[in-house]
Amino acid sequence: MRVLIAGAGIGGLTAALSLHAAGIEAEVLDAASEIRPLGVGINLLPHAVGELIALGLGDELAAIGVATAENVYCDHTGHDLFAEPRGLAGGYRWPQYSVHRGRLQLMLLAAARERGIPVRTGIRVDGFDQDADSVRAAGTEADILVGADGLHSAIRARLHPGEGPLHWSGVRMWRGTSETGPFRTGRTMIIARGPGDAELIAYPIGPATINWVALLPVAPPGPLPGDADWNAPGSAEDLLPHFGWDLGWLDVPRLITSSERVFTYPMVDRDPLPHWGHGRVTLLGDAAHPMYPVGANGASQAIVDARALALNAGNLAAYEKTRLPETADVIRANREMQRTGHARDAAELAHITGTYRRKTRAG
Ligand SMILES: Cc1cc2nc3c(=O)[nH]c(=O)nc-3n(C[C@H](O)[C@H](O)[C@H](O)COP(=O)(O)OP(=O)(O)OC[C@H]3O[C@@H](n4cnc5c(N)ncnc54)[C@H](O)[C@@H]3O)c2cc1C
């Protein structure tokens, strides 16, 4: 069997590695002229880390990631509201890692190339033709085509025309990294809430590198006007009036202004689809189930998809039957978390985070 994967993001590369480990030939095509380490920090939850360890990438991952020890919810003065241990410290079987997205992508790319998996760049997959014998896309023929082409998936648009604009929570996010050194345990993720539902998430992705995301509600929820681009430049000036917070152990204005680059991105998702693909074509990762990042689940769910695909490559219906309902639950749980997560009470936060873990079956 030969599998063609459109998209060399976290999902597409992990799928290629998982298929290869299962003895299935895979080839990856990416529209970008070269794979560059784009993005800022992302989180890999224990269940996804377990899949990467099973692929023999545990040491590489440990070398580029920071093993998260705790999530701490606090207010904008640095007063703790609720804390939960994470990863190994939380009793999970595998660590949780915070990592630079681009470094993770390059690590997966290097592993794919070492294992002889062809990854070709500068090739956009815009559509496909399929019949009983094969599927053809971008001049290549295969038994299966996997659309792992991200939020603006061309394969999804082809499979599900007329879906309309992305769904926007009304929250805008600003993201950056700063070399401001460790805070608290050096392995702590903080979720700080201030007036006007302003929220700051910060966590280390290296010994001195802190990743931060500042969130502000700026519009009522609804269809997204305009575009969602992970690389759109943002301005620290827009944020500082809302985030002049001194948490005691973290100077938030310094964190924000120390970033060389600030990116802005609307918090968007899509409703779960009734089905992903048909015939020899399916979807994976953000192409299949774009979700709010509130549960830190986007990359993790793409990695879990990859494993399920490798187990069911000969039966795409079985792959979708497993993964579609699970990821639909995560989309819904993320929306609920986004709506309710502004609680300031420890018992309520414990309930909300516990419910989230249960609904997403996530570590
Ligand atoms: C540039 C970029 C920066 C990001 N930064 C962050 C971040 O800082 N924090 C965060 O939480 N998440 C970020 N994300 C999203 C995050 O990577 C995903 O939510 C998650 O990892 C799931 O990945 P995925 O492989 O499904 O999709 P993606 O990571 O989006 O990968 C999709 C890949 O498909 C390629 N592609 C797109 N269209 C086509 C096409 N028609 N044909 C062939 N290839 C195509 C893209 O070049 C990309 O490499 C970013 C995504 C991108 C693309």
UniProtKB/TrEMBL annotation:
SUPFAM superfamilies: FAD-linked reductases, C-terminal domain, FAD/NAD(P)-binding domain. Keywords: Monooxygenase, Oxidoreductase, Signal. Residues 2-311 form the FAD-binding domain. Residues 1-21 form the signal peptide. GO terms for molecular function: FAD binding; monooxygenase activity. It comes from the Bacteria. This is Flavin-dependent oxidoreductase. It comes from Amycolatopsis acidicola. The lineage of its organism: Bacteria, Bacillati, Actinomycetota, Actinomycetes, Pseudonocardiales.
